[in-house]
Amino acid sequence: MKPTFYITTPIYYPSDKLHIGHSYTTVAADAMARYKRLQGFDVMFVTGSDEHGQKIQRLAEGRNVSPKAYVDPVVASIKELWSLLNISYDRFIRTTDPEHEAAIQYIFQKLYDQGDIYKDEYEGWYCTPCEAFWTETQLNDHKCPDCGRPVELTKEESYFFRLSRYQDRLIELFENQPDFVQPASRANEMLNNFLRPGLDDLCVSRTTFNWGVKVPFDPKHVVYVWIDALSNYITALGYPETTDAFKRYWPADIHLVGKEIIRFHTIIWPAMLMALQIPLPKKVYGHGWLLFKDGKMSKSRGNVVDPVILCRRYGVDAIRYFLLREIPFGADGNFSNEALINRINSDLANDLGNLVSRTTAMIDRYFPEGLPAQRTEEAGDRELQQTCGQLKGRVEAAMEQLQFSQALSEIWLVINRSNKYIDETTPWILARSDENRSRLAAVLFNLAEAIRIISILLQPFMPETPKQIWTFLGLTDPNLTDWSSAEEFGLFRSTGITKNKPIFPRLDLDKELEGLGEELNQPTQPETTDIQDEKQAVEPEWIEIGDFAKVDLRIGRIVRCEKVSGSDKLLCSQVDMGGTTRQILSGIAADYQPEDLLNRLVVVVTNLKPRKIRGLVSEGMLLCAESESECRLLTVDGTIEPGSQVR
Ligand code: MSP
C-alpha cells in the first residue's frame, strides 16, 4: 500500500474575493501535494471556506441578503481561482456543509458532556475581523494584537472550553516535539507569549449574532467560529464517523497556515484534539506574509493584487514560480510588480526559456533524423552529468523542509550550469565540421538530458511548463518523465523535436509596469455579481457594513466640563461611559458654555487613538453636526444607559 500524506490549507473567509496573499498559501500547499504524489504517496489535500461568523453576517445584512446567499458566489469565485491556479485539491470543505455542521454539534456536545465545556459569563474584547477574543492584558495599545484593528468590549453569557486544563500537556508537546511547529522561532513565540504565562479558558459560544452552528442543547448560542473552522481538518475526512478516509489520512502531516493564525493551530487545535482523544497533527507550518507597498495587503489600504489579472497577463506557471521562488518560505517578503516582471524575464525567459529553445533548435537543425548512438564524451561533461544526477536529491531535501525557494534555486543552478555548458562547448562551431559530429551529438544529448531532469523536477511548482517542454523534446515515453527517472543521467530518447516558440516571451519592463499598474488599479470587478446592488456600481464610494462597524460609537454622559486654559476653542469634558470615565477634548467652546453640557447624553467615538492636545490627553471624540456658522453636539433623548452602543 502507498504511504499517505495529508496536507491542508487554512479554510478561507468568503467575505470577499481572495487575493494573491491567499493564493500564496494555496500554491505552496499545492506544490507540496504534487511533489508527494510524484514521489508515489497517496495524497489527501484539503482546502475550503470558513463561512460562519459575525463578519459575514454583517456583510450580508449590508447587502440585504442571507449570509448563505452572500457567501455562495464568493465560494464559487474561490473555486474558480483554484482551478485557474491549477490547485490539485482533493476535497473542498465548506463549514456550511450539513455533515460538517452536524459534526460540530457532535463535538460541542461531547466536550460539554465530558466537562471540557462549561457555561459562565464572558467579559472581554473581541476582534470581529479575526473572530478572536482577547483579555485586557493581551491587547496591544487597545487594539487586536494579531491584526492591529480596534476591538469591541463584549459581555455575555457564554460557554467556555477548559483550555487551561491542557496547558501542561501543550508545553510538553512543544518541548518534546520540536518539529511540531515550524519554523522554530514560531514555537518559541507560542511558548513564551502564551503557554508559559498561563492559558485562560476559551469562550466558545456567542449570542450576539446567529450565523453559525447552533449549540445543540442551547440554541440561542452559536459555536465560536474557530472551533467550527479548525474542526474542518477532521470533518473533511468524515469525523465523527470512523471512515476509511479518517483512518487512512489522520493525523495530518502538515497544516500549512499564515503566521497570524499559528496560535489557533498550535494551542487551541491541539487542546481540542487532546480533549477529543484524537492524535495530533504531525506539523503546523506558519509561513510569512507577502507584503505590499503599504504593508500587509488589505482592501482598506487599497493595495489588493488580483491573482486573476496576473495569471491572465503572464500565465499561471509564471505566477506560481514567482510566489514560490521570490521569498524563502517562512519569512515575510515583498511583492512588487517590478520584482515579478524581472523574475519572469531573468529566470523564465532568459535562463530556462533560452536553454530549451537553443537546445531544441540545435538538435532539430543538426540532427533532424534524431541524435545518433555514436557520441563522444569528454572529461568536462562529467561535472554537468554529476550535477544533474544529484539534483533530485537536493530538491527533495529542500522540499522536505518546505523550502520551495531553495528547491527552485537548486534547479536554477543546473539550468545556469547547462547554459554555461553551451557557451563552453560551442556546438555551433562543432557543427561546422563533419569530424566533430559525434562530439556534437554528445553535447546536445547532455543538454537534452539536463532539460529532461530539470523539467521532471519542475512539475510540483509549474504543472504546465514541463509538459510543453516534453512535447518540444519529443519525450513521449512516460518512463522518461517519471519522477524517479530524474535520478539517472543518460536516459534521453526522443520521438522527434517539435518546432516551438518561446515558453516565456521576454517582457518590456517599462511597458509592462505601466500596463500592469493600470490594470491592477482599475476598480476591481464586482466580486459577487449575483448580489451586487446596482446602485453600488455607480457610486463607488460605498463602504461595507464591516467598515462602519470598525468605529465603536457609544453613548456617554457628560459629568464635568471646563474650558481649556489658553484656548478659546477647546472644552474638556469628563464623560461617563457606563462604569468608566473618559476625558475628551472638543473644539466647541464657541458654541457652548461648559455648564450647558452637564448631563447631556452624547455620542462618543471610543476607539479613536488617544492623543494629546495642549498637554491634555483626549480619549475619544464627541460627534457634532457642523455648518459654516455653527457646531451642534449630537445628543440622544430618553434615558439610555451610558456605554450603550450606537449602531
Ligand atoms: N478562516 C481563517 C482560517 C481558519 S483555518 C481553520 C482565516 N481565513 S483568511 O481568509 O483570513 O485566510 C487566512 C490565510 O490566508 C492566512 O493564514 C494566510 O495563509 C493567507 N494569507 C492572507 N493574506 C496573506 C498575505 N498577504 N501573505 C501571505 N499569506 C496570506 O484566517
Description:
Helix 10 (262-276) links the parallel strand 11 (254-258) and strand 12 (284-287). Helices cover 41% and strands 17% of the residues. Residues 524-540 have low confidence and may be disordered. Helix 6 (184-195) crosses helix 10, helix 11 (307-314) packs across helix 12 and helix 15 (404-425) runs antiparallel to helix 17 (437-458). The relative contact order is 0.09. The protein is built from 21 helices and 24 strands. The strands form 7 sheets. Strands 3-2-1-11-12-7 form a 6-stranded parallel sheet, with helices on both faces. Strands 18-17-16-19-22 form a 5-stranded antiparallel sheet, with no helix packed on it. It is α/β, with parallel strands linked by helices and 647 residues long. The structure holds 5'-O-[(L-methionyl)-sulphamoyl]adenosine. The site of 5'-O-[(L-methionyl)-sulphamoyl]adenosine has 19 residues, from strand 1, helix 1, helix 7 and strand 11.
N- and C-termini, Cα separation = 59 Å
Q: What's the count of strands?
A: 24
Structural classification: alpha/beta
Question: Percentage of helical residues?
Answer: 40-55%
Radius of gyration: 30 Å
Summarize model confidence as the mean pLDDT.
Answer: 92
Number of helices: 21
Q: Major β-sheet, in short?
A: 6 strands, parallel
Summary of the model, kept short:
The protein is α/β, with parallel strands linked by helices and about 650 residues long.
List keywords for this structure.
single chain; 21 helices; alpha/beta; 647 residues; binds 5'-O-[(L-methionyl)-sulphamoyl]adenosine; five-stranded antiparallel sheet; six-stranded parallel sheet
